[in-house]
UniProtKB/TrEMBL annotation:
NCBIfam families recorded: 3a0107s01c2 (TIGR00972)
GO BP term, example: phosphate ion transmembrane transport
Xref: SUPFAM superfamilies: P-loop containing nucleoside triphosphate hydrolases
Keyword Membrane included in the entry's annotation: yes
Gene Ontology molecular-function annotations: ATP binding; ATP hydrolysis activity; phosphate transmembrane transporter activity
InterPro entries linked: AAA+_ATPase, ABC_transporter-like_ATP-bd, ABC_transporter-like_CS, P-loop_NTPase, PstB-like
Coiled-coil ranges (or none): none
Species classification: Bacteria, Bacillati, Bacillota, Bacilli, Lactobacillales
Name under which the protein is recorded: ABC-type phosphate transport system, ATPase component
Gene Ontology CC terms, in alphabetical order: membrane
Length: 266
């Protein structure tokens, strides 16, 4: 069902029996006096990939970073961010525990200056997991989920910094998966990658959506159309349209969306 909210936006809403992994209600983001995000209300269905698209400065990354409190100390975020019945935008939330459930992969790979194995085992040690066999099991399973195991399994002691950019990005995904998250947030994770590495990353994400909810910011409309189930188009800090990816790219409701996806924008 599509709910048309005046003439400025068109937002898809879901039936009551559709499981929602994360929902924002009237989220506002302020950088000082700059009102960067306006009235952001969206539902993210579980076990799907949602793409956030829009021009530079439209608010995509600002909104994404709000979803696991990465804007704390940088911006003021008002409104509700609902996860499993809890408003994670409240002061009572344990942010570090919450981020284990809502992980984040950044635009550029940020592996630790440690071995491949230690990139994953170090956070596990910090969580209090000491059993070596359990740690090795998690290292292997998370690398397999990130489609990296076959490429590195014979040299886990190798420095993560020696990996290619695409491998480093998949290692960062594996590191997030080792925390047993529910949701993965990704801020343009392929922007620094070559086409082959981008293809491998997209195949990895397609496989992961059977077990995780993925929300991805991408500047590539081709990537959004290939990869995502749902797409939200943002413009000047507002969510203009949210629908199935097919509808957004082939039958958008809003003229502004149509102009953007067809290239007649700006």
């Amino acid at each position: 069902m599509v709910e048309k909210v005046n003439k400025e936006k068109s937002i898809l809403t879901f039936p009551a029996d559709r499981e929602i992994a994360l929902e924002t209600k009237n989220v506002q983001v302020y950088y000082g006096d700059n009102h960067a995000m306006h009235d952001a209300s969206l539902q993210f269905p579980r076990y799907s990939i949602t793409a956030l698209i829009g021009a530079s400065g439209s608010g995509k990354s600002t909104y994404l970073r709000s979803l696991n409190r990465m804007n704390d100390g940088i911006a003021r975020v008002d409104g509700e961010i609902m996860y499993r019945g809890l408003n994670i935008n409240s002061n009572e939330v344990d942010i570090y525990q919450m981020r284990r459930r809502i992980g984040m992969v950044f635009q550029r790979p940020n592996p630790f200056a440690k071995s491949i194995h230690n990139n994953i085992s170090f956070p596990l040690h910090e969580m209090g997991i000491k059993d070596k066999s359990k740690i090795n099991e998690i290292v292997e399973s998370s690398l397999k989920q990130a489609a990296l195991w076959d490429e590195v399994k014979d040299d886990l002691g190798r420095s993560a910094l020696s990996l290619s950019g695409g491998q480093q990005q998949r290692l960062c995904i594996a590191r997030s998966l080792a925390m047993n998250p529910d949701i993965l947030l990704m801020d343009e994770p392929a922007s620094a990658l070559d086409p082959i590495s981008t293809y491998k990353l997209e195949m990895t994400l397609s496989d992961l959506k059977d077990q995780y909810t993925i929300i991805i910011v991408t500047h590539s409309m081709e990537q959004a159309s290939r990869l995502s189930d749902y797409t939200a188009f943002l413009h000047m800090g507002k969510i203009v349209e949210f629908d199935t990816t097919k509808n957004v790219f082939t039958n958008p409701t809003m003229k502004l969306t149509e102009d953007y996806v067809s290239g007649n924008f700006g």
